[in-house]
Amino acid sequence: MKKLAIIYHSAHGHTAHIATxxxxxxxxxxxxxxxxxxxxxxxxxPEELLKYDGxxxxxxxxxxGVSGPFKMFMDATGCLWRTQKLKGKLAAGFTVSSLPxxxxxxxxxxxxxxxxxxGMLWIGNPILPEQQxxxxxxxxxxxxxxxxxxxxxxxxxxxxxxFPAGDIKTARMFGKNFSEAxxxxxxxxxxxxxxxxxxx
Length: 200
Prior knowledge:
Elements: E1 2-8, H1 14-27, E2 32-38, H2 39-42, E3 54-60, H3 68-76, H4 78-82, E4 90-97, H5 104-117, E5 121-122, E6 150-153, H6 165-186, H7 188-199
Parallel strand pairs: 1-2, 1-3, 3-4, 4-5, 4-6
């Protein structure tokens, strides 16, 4: 059983909605225990991160970066950085803004650098944009064309669950891909042991 934490901050519910879709995809992979955690709840207890094998980070994009509460969570992990307690863990990121670009790449890069400083292993977004195959733009997976992480867009002042179908599809595929990667990376020793046992 691999344990995965989806850590997010959501001020108006949009990032929370995408987090639940990522959860659905990640949770669809057998032998994966997935938890949804609010970043602000971990600020006082960052050592809770040690329970997990991997992390998917999620924040809205505010002024080209992560939100204030999410940055406070990141800063609170300094005690773990000094001892490199998160080294070798898998990580990925997603972000939401009200515009197709909205400088979401800057947000993903701040998450990436944060994870690199902790010695984590970054998992990108390998999903090919489906509009290239003729699927309507709003229904296409990875319609925004992001490979460093998951990007989603909800219109300004739109309801929290008001996302194009393609973004929902992408979020679920993104979560599933991360869980599968978690098992490939950390399950290799188990697979090798089973193969050796079969030869004896």
